[in-house]
UniProtKB/TrEMBL annotation:
Keywords: Hydrolase
Keyword Glycosyltransferase tagged: no
InterPro entries reported in the protein's UniProt record: AB_hydrolase_1, AB_hydrolase_fold, FrsA_esterase
Organism: Streptomyces pharetrae CZA14
Family: Belongs to the AB hydrolase superfamily. FUS2 hydrolase family.
Name this protein carries in UniProt: Alpha/beta hydrolase
UniProt superkingdom: Bacteria
AB hydrolase-1 domain segment(s): 68-169
Keyword Hydrolase among UniProt keywords: yes
Region described as Disordered: spans on this chain: 1-31
Length: 289
C-alpha cells in the first residue's frame, strides 16, 4: 500500500410502459421481492430485493443486524441486465441486496437526467431497504451510479448510510477527454443520439440541459464525512483517467480510502469476483458487521 494525495491508496494485485406498483415473489428465490417504488418527484422505479445468500455467516441474526447493499448501476444499465445481476449475486454473499433501475432505464418511468435527479431514485431504494428491516445500509454505485451515491450521501443526510462505495465514478461534470465520453455526450445531447439511447440501449434520456447544474461529485465528497467512503478505480479505465479518483480522494481527506486496481477497466463489466469480495469485506467492516 502506498500513500495517495489523501486517504489511503491501495495498489492491489489484479485479481416504456410502466406497470402499476406491485410486489411479488415470482422471481426465483423464496424471499426475493420485486416492486415499483415512487420517488419524491413522482417517478415510478423498478426495484428488486435479494436476501443474503445462504452462505452469509450468521443468518440467525435479525434482519436489522444484516448489512444491505443498495446498488446504483451505470448509465444504460437496469435491474435485469446480466452484469447488474452478477454484481448483486456477489454482494449477496456479504448481505442483502437492493437493485433498482434508474429513471428512464429498463421498466422504470421517467427519463434519465444522467446523474442529477437520480439521487431521488436512490433515496427511494434506501427507504425501501430500511422498510424491509435493515438498519445498516451501504450504498454502492458504478460509473454514473458512482457519482449518484456520492451526491446522495451529501444531499440526503437524513438517510446517512453506514458506508459509501463509488466505483469508476467521474469527479467532475462535462468531461470529454476520452473517446467513450465524447460518444456518450453525443448520445445524451443530440436528438439522434437520444433515439439510439432509447431503441439501442433501452434508455430514455431527457432532452433538457441541466438547470441549474447539480452539485458535482468532487464537491459532494467533503459533505459525506464522517461516513466511511471507498473509491475504487481501474488504471485502465477508458472513460475516466486517474485524475478523477485522485481528485475524489483528495476531497475525501481522512474519511476516504482509494483503491487503484491494476489492469481494471470501467465499472461493472470490469469488476471481477475477487474485487467484489474485497469490497464486500470492506463494507462489512465499515458498517460494523
Amino acid at each position: 500500500m502506498s500513500s495517495g494525495p489523501a486517504g489511503h491508496v491501495a495498489r492491489s494485485t489484479p485479481s416504456s410502459t410502466v406497470r402499476p406498483p406491485l410486489e411479488t415473489n415470482r422471481v426465483s428465490g423464496p424471499a426475493r421481492k420485486r416492486t415499483f417504488l415512487h420517488t419524491a418527484d413522482g417517478v415510478m422505479i423498478e426495484a428488486v430485493y435479494e436476501p443474503a445468500a445462504a452462505a452469509f455467516p450468521d443468518t440467525s441474526r435479525p434482519a436489522a443486524g444484516h448489512l444491505v447493499f443498495v446498488m446504483a448501476h451505470g448509465f444504460t444499465g437496469d435491474v435485469s441486465r446480466p452484469h447488474v445481476r452478477r454484481i448483486a449475486r456477489a454482494l449477496a454473499r456479504h448481505g442483502a441486496v437492493v437493485t433498482f433501475s434508474f429513471r428512464g432505464h429498463g421498466a422504470s418511468g421517467g427519463r434519465s437526467t444522467v446523474g442529477d435527479r437520480e439521487v431521488l431514485d436512490l433515496a427511494a431504494a434506501v427507504d425501501w431497504a430500511r422498510g424491509l428491516g435493515h438498519a445498516r445500509v451501504v450504498t454502492i454505485g458504478f460509473s454514473m451510479g458512482g457519482s449518484v451515491v456520492l451526491r446522495h450521501a451529501a444531499l440526503h443526510r437524513e438517510q446517512e448510510p453506514a458506508a459509501v462505495v463509488s466505483v469508476s465514478a467521474p469527479a467532475r461534470w462535462y468531461y470529454r477527454g476520452t473517446a467513450p465520453m465524447r460518444r456518450l455526450h453525443w448520445l445524451v445531447t443530440r436528438p439522434a443520439g437520444r433515439v439510439v439511447g432509447r431503441y439501442g440501449f433501452r434508455t430514455r434520456i431527457h432532452h433538457r440541459d441541466w438547470d441549474p447544474v447539480p452539485l458535482s461529485p468532487v464537491e459532494a465528497v467533503p459533505r459525506i464525512a464522517p461516513t466511511p467512503l471507498l473509491v475504487v478505480h481501474g488504471d485502465r479505465d477508458g472513460y475516466f483517467p486517474l485524475d478523477h479518483p485522485y481528485m475524489l480522494a483528495a476531497a475525501a481527506g481522512e474519511h476516504g480510502e482509494l483503491w487503484i486496481e491494476p489492469g481494471m477497466g470501467h465499472a461493472e463489466h470490469a469488476t471481477d469476483e475477487a474485487l467484489l469480495a474485497r469490497i464486500g469485506d470492506w463494507a462489512a467492516g465499515a458498517a460494523g458487521i
